[in-house]
Design a protein that fits this description.
With about 425 residues, this protein is α/β, with parallel strands linked by helices. It has twelve helices and 26 strands. The strands form seven sheets. A four-stranded mixed sheet has the order 23-25-1-26, with helices on one face. It has a four-stranded mixed sheet with strand order 2-15-17-16. The protein has a four-stranded mixed sheet with strand order 4-5-3-14, with helices on one face. Helix 1 crosses helix 6, helix 4 packs parallel to helix 5 and helix 7 packs parallel to helix 9. Catalyzes the transfer of the enolpyruvyl moiety of phosphoenolpyruvate (PEP) to the 5-hydroxyl of shikimate-3-phosphate (S3P) to produce enolpyruvyl shikimate-3-phosphate and inorganic phosphate.
Length: about 425
Amino acid sequence: MDVLVNNTPSLAGEINALSSKNYTTRYLLVGALAEGTSTIYYPAHSEDSDAMRRCIQELGAELIEDEEKITITGFGASPRQVSELNVGNAGAVLRFLMGIAALGEEIHFVNTYPESLGKRPHQDLIDALEQLGVEVEHQDGRLPITIRGGKPQGGAIRVSGSVSSQYLSALLFLTPLLPEDSTIEVLGDLKSKVVVGQTLEVLEQAGITIHADENYMFFTVPGGQKYKPAEYTVQGDYPGSAAILAAAAVTNSEVTVTRLMEESKQGERAIVDVLRMMEVPLTHENNTVTIKGNGRLKAVEFDGDAATDAVLAMVAAAVFAEGTSRFYNVENLRYKECDRITDYLTELAKAGAKVEEKQAEIIVHGRPEGVEGGVEINAHYDHRVIMALTIVGLRAKQPIRIKDAHHVAKSYPGYFDHLQTLGANVEWV
Ligand SMILES: O=C(O)C1=C[C@@H](OP(=O)(O)O)[C@@H](O)[C@H](O)C1
Ligand SMILES: C=C(OP(=O)(O)O)C(=O)O
């Protein structure tokens, strides 16, 4: 299904932020790895979090769900033998479960999104699992992948952090369950380091002990641990809300988003600081962000690695800023649902934005007068491209048609409903 985004001069209203995808996938996983019953309040509902739900159920977790919560009785360190798992298009879910699959005999991960997740690299995680004696069959580091556990014991592991933090997170979820102690040394630069902070926070809540050095480059993990059942409450999601906040910033608006914790470990809370640096009038107090946008923004320079999943929304806001903005240290955007530098900038340029790319950088020459629009956008299966191009469409002179915009449901199925609530002229076609 496509979405038509029409020029929308103003937005107004209040919405409750969607629930965090990254915390939901983690809480589901640690609930599944516990022996006993855990409760997760306000879990996210999206394709990615549903993929984790489905897979852990297949692996033997029992889930009961109502409007407000999921109770989950875990399988501990003994997942049920299943022949195959389908994670959809969810990168983090795949990588975390590749680690957990090492506890089983043989699990095959199928390739249902050959043009998106099917193109993403997993070699660094494969190399790390092989150091534990796990056998991995793969297609040049990509899906389809078969993992043959062979009872890993633990030990010294080295993993590259230069493409994705998810490989390290996967090892942090797995190693406490192995019989012997492990050490994990991160090689190269660790990208998306802040997300590892979320992994460690959740592991601690699940009663797991991990000794991490200050820079998250070396970890000591005692073996033979058990995940404890616990109660978890999922916080609001900054990456998705970043798109709503950026939409408010580029229009005349009075928009409030609740449930966005000031003290969150989500790096994407930097959307608030970046919009502030762009001189967008806003407040952030009592977990509530209010933007009173006047459509005027100043250019910004920002290290995007700290807020990887909000960079596309920031760039969309910068399209209308006065001056040239620069988002640097963002090379790993190239290894997401699509190449979020080349593919994204190609679509932005089609819509009339003035953008340039370097290997690890996005440069935006702002156009406060607005962009032309009147084009069809290839969303490249990427929810964040869909959300970001929508922001641009709100201020385009002619409507923008986003092809296959239903892929927004990977993380934020209610995105267009929320925008309509705020008065955006967007429609499914
Ligand atoms: O651990 C996680 O849940 C995630 C880590 C990040 O990926 P990278 O570490 O590959 O940047 C982020 O982009 C992704 O949406 C979710
Ligand atoms: C990159 C993302 O997710 P994943 O890596 O889990 O597919 C995302 O949510 O933007």
